């Protein structure tokens, strides 16, 4: 009887050992999956941040360009020359010639 009991206890210990191993393996897989998911999410956020920073820089550059243009347009001489060049406005007695840019 003692021998049977000892064999039964060994089997129970073996089964418990395997169950613990399976449980730990499952937990490890779960945590590894979550870490991988978080790494992917972090990379996506970094990529989005980079795109947004590039967009912000583009907007800042354009803002500076528009501020300079605004300052230049506030100068009456520049505004007059700009209007004459872009809108083909002439003074009395002037002739306007438009040259084709195509080659």
Describe this protein's structure.
The structure is a single chain. By secondary structure, the chain is mostly helical. It has a domain of 62 residues. 81% of the residues lie in helices and 0% in strands. The N and C termini lie far apart (107 Å). The model has no long low-confidence stretch (mean pLDDT 88).
Count of distinct strands: 0
Structural class: mainly alpha
- Count of DSSP H/I helices: 2
List SSEs in N-to-C order. HH
> Which stretches are low in confidence, meaning pLDDT under 50 for 5 or more residues running?
none
Q: Percent range for helical residues?
A: over 70%
Largest sheet: none
**Terminal residue distance:** 107 Å
Instruction: Provide the β-strand percentage band.
Output: under 5%
- What is the rounded Rg? 39 Å
Q: Categorize the overall geometry.
A: rod-shaped
Overall pLDDT metric: 88
């Amino acid at each position: 009887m003692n021998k049977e009991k000892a064999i039964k206890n060994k089997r129970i210990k073996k089964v418990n050992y395997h169950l613990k191993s399976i449980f730990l393996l499952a937990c490890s897989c779960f945590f590894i999956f979550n870490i991988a998911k978080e790494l992917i999410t972090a990379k996506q956020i970094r990529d989005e941040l980079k795109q947004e920073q590039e967009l912000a820089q583009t907007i800042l550059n354009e803002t500076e360009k528009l501020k300079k243009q605004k300052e230049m347009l506030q100068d009456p001489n520049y505004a007059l020359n700009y209007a004459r060049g872009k809108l083909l406005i002439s003074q009395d007695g002037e002739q306007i010639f438009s040259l084709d840019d195509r080659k």
